[in-house]
Amino acid sequence: MRILRLLAIHLRLALSGALAYRADFLIHLFESLLEFGTGLGGLALVFSHTQTLGGWSAPEVVALTGVFFIVGGAVRFAVQPAMESLIESVRDGTLDFTLVKPVDSQVLVGLKRFEIWKLVDVLMGLAVLAVALWKLGAAVGLGDALRFAVALAAGGAIVYSFWLMLATLSFWFVRVENILVIFQSLYEAGRWPVNLYPGWLRFLLTFLVPVAFATTVPAEALSGRIGWEKILLSLGVAAGMLVLSRLFWKIGSRHYSGASA
Amino acid sequence: MTAIRVRELRKQYRVSEREAGLWSSVKSLVRRKTRTVSAVDGISFDIAPGEIVGFLGPNGAGKTTTLKMLSGLLHPSSGEIEVLGQVPWKRHADFLGRMSLVMGQRNQLVWDIPAVETFELNRAIYRIPMAQYRETLDELVDLLDLKAVMGAPVRNLSLGERMKCELTAALLHRPKVVFLDEPTIGLDVTMQRRLRDFISQYRRVHGATVLLTSHYMADVEALCRRVIVIHRGRLLFDGDLGALVGRFAAHKLISIHLATPCAGLAQYGELVSDEEGHVTLRVPKAETPRVTARLLAELPITDLTVEDPPIDEVISRVFTEGAV
Amino acid sequence: MNGLLGVYLQQWKISLAETFQYRAAMAIWLIGHVLEPLLYLVVWSAVAGANGGRVGGMGRGDFAAYFIALLLVNHVTYTWIMWEMEHRIRHGALSFALLKPLHPVHADIAANLASKLITFPVILLAAGALALLFKPAFHPSSWSVLAFLPSLLLAFLLRFALEWVLALAAFWTTRIGAVNQAYFVTALFFSGQIAPLALLPSPMAFLSKILPFRWTAGFPVDLLLGRLDPHEALHGFLAQGAWILGILLVARVLWRAALRRYSAVGS
């Protein structure tokens, strides 16, 4: 309960901060529209030359694009700002203030900073997803929707854990920002169904940088091409990653020595 | 013959006024309300070749704006400037090659590599002949004791070491005019003194004209006989440092030695210190002769001196009260 | 000119040292450079696969050759000046550049070339690895390979001039991100990054002919792969030259305006 209250307080703070820079909203909307135009324009170009792509129909890939933007937007809204702020605070020693608070520090770190306007990406992703669903029509059953929701949540947890582990590296190394770029670059691969990629890249995107669980798997669930067993796998990976990142965080923060670097 | 000539120099900025509220921010997209602010408001002065002048004023007085106009980074709104016979904002290579601007809070050195590489780059940019470069560099390295730090990446240097390298980079081409904006900011006292000596020596050896701003009055006292004081963009004072004190000090300090301890000294003036018969009183300037006479007449005095207050105090009074 | 050469050499040395300092960061940035053409390579191969092996006259091997060549060309021509300029203005570093009796563009060119000297071998390795994995169909003619080098040089100059001019936008607005993104989206479609230009539908194909972007990437790639006849190649060189001249003229005017603006407002 207290975590929810903390979340509400931090969100309110972030919102009032964001409202002070309202022009940013328009700018971000513009950038976001460009981003979507690029994504959908690329799809249109590809599908003007073919009916299916690796066995996926156009509306199915549009749905994937929606998921890609929802997860990407959520990361840019909450995960990335919090992790960047974590890295900064490890370097300048202000993490001290977080560690002495009587709340779980991993939770507190996660609530540190929000980029409110990035929610625009999430909303537009939802809109794209809605259009795709409408095109897919009756093909999406209740079971598919349920599996989609579970897969999306698991994918979110996996991405969060992955980011947390990358950011936790800052307890040992000074320049970690660059490592974050790895995820951002590879996330781009999530625009397309991972089954297009050659085996080594698919393996990389599934197990090393888990982009596939966050994008392809939920979209697959939606188009009814996977059953519960793959969803269970996704859940299992999510649980494993959450535990692992928690452990990593614990060891890392024990390693923290104030602003020595 | 003047090195720097400034006439009725003005710099005005338009700043947009923002009001709170969504509607007014939408409105401001269409038409923006602006207001004109004068950073520099009609100042004139001349500086002779080889002269070193302290340029004083509180934060926001227009010092940095003036220095940027003098070095050609800013275009004046009106008025005339001539530095070394050139109009700075035209940015002729000939002008740029004979002057230097050093800003204490910013650096031109490349952060991740040794300072000597930036020196080499400046040698190429300013087309300094190799022999002259070697000679100047040796001289600067010697004066500033740079031998050990020149080869280390700039980010590993202390603030003082970095500033010494900044100065070296700025002076390698032997500029005839040097603008120094807070060159000693953030440095410890020893390092400040060191840089001061260095600036003074550079000016002597190369006959350079120097205009210096500093928050530390010690810098100004040590280096400059002449000071120019500006406040809110206007010229407040231009002349001898001693005359500045004479003109702006509202008080004098009377210090006396007493043969026997006395009570009731406060009636003569504000008691600044009272230690074993050595007493210092602060007295309004106009009252000084009268109080001195009374002290001599009424107290057992063995010694009496009348002094101006410390320059810091005078300057800060000028700045806080904007006194004229 | 001897003096200018000295500046280039020293700036080169400095940039090499700096790039070397950040080699880990560079390696990570390179992932993005390699990934983008790789994704489109995979996607278009899949499209070809789903349509009997060929799309618009190109098979899997052709796509592989196209995107691997594009990776190399892109790496030679890319710049980061649009971010650099904004950063420079915001942090006051531009003032130092302006105090020097030399145009700042020289330092930019030298720094760009120097950093690529270090990263290009890495990209070459990556291209080699991709070639092993995707088996490109590479059968060029000897004249077009020879013509490729000057076209690459002109593509670099054109892109550098274009992005340097766009970077001047930072003198007027702090919202440089939006400007950059608009540019990159346009360039993505019209330079041949997202697909070989021959695959663009007709209104876009027309636009790609009148915009400068194809001459920065699609043209040298097509030339290298031997997909152009001598007449088209000549046309390309003339277009590259004309665009470079035009942009340089604009650059001259805009740079003066930018300086006027900078010296009116300061930083």
> What's the alpha carbon Rg of chain C, rounded to whole Å?
20 Å
* Main sheet record of chain B: 6 strands, mixed
What structural class do you assign from the helix and strand content of chain C? mainly alpha
Give me the oligomer status.
Answer: heterotrimer
- Overall pLDDT confidence of chain B: 86
Distance between the termini of chain C: 32 Å
Enumerate how many helices of chain B there are, as a single number. Answer: 11
Lateral strand order in the biggest sheet of chain C: 1-2
User: Regarding CATH, which class of the largest domain in chain B?
Assistant: Alpha Beta
Main sheet overview of chain C: 2 strands, antiparallel
Strand order of the largest sheet of chain B: 5-6-7-3-8-9
Number of strands of chain B: 13
Whole-number tally of structural domains of chain B: 2
Mean pLDDT of chain C: 91
Shape of chain C: globular
Number of separate domains of chain C: 1
Descriptive notes:
The complex is a heterotrimer of chains A (261), B (324) and C (267). Chain A has 12 helices and 2 strands; from the N terminus they run H-H-E-E-H-H-H-H-H-H-H-H-H-H. Chain A has 261 residues and is mostly helical. Chain A has one domain. In chain A, strands 1-2 form a two-stranded antiparallel ribbon. The longest helix of chain A is centred in the first third of the chain and has 35 residues. The two termini of chain A are 36 Å apart. With 324 residues, chain B is an alpha/beta fold. Chain B has 2 domains: 223 residues, Rossmann fold; 58 residues. In chain B, the strands form 3 sheets. A 6-stranded mixed sheet of chain B has the order 5-6-7-3-8-9, sandwiched between helices. A 4-stranded antiparallel sheet of chain B has the order 11-12-10-13, covered by helices on one side. Chain B has a 3-stranded antiparallel sheet with strand order 2-1-4. In chain B, a hairpin with a 2-residue loop joins strand 11 and strand 12. In chain B, helix 4 runs parallel beside helix 6. The radius of gyration of chain B is 25 Å and the shape is globular. Chain C has 267 residues and is mostly helical. Chain C has one domain. Chain C is built from 11 helices and 2 strands. Chain C has a two-stranded antiparallel sheet with strand order 1-2. In chain C, helix 2 crosses helix 6 and helix 3 runs antiparallel to helix 6. Chain C starts with a helix and ends with a helix. The model of chain C has no long low-confidence stretch (mean pLDDT 91). Classes of the chains: A mainly alpha (261), B alpha/beta (324), C mainly alpha (267). At the A-C interface, helix 2, strand 1 and helix 8 of A face helix 2 and helix 8 of C.
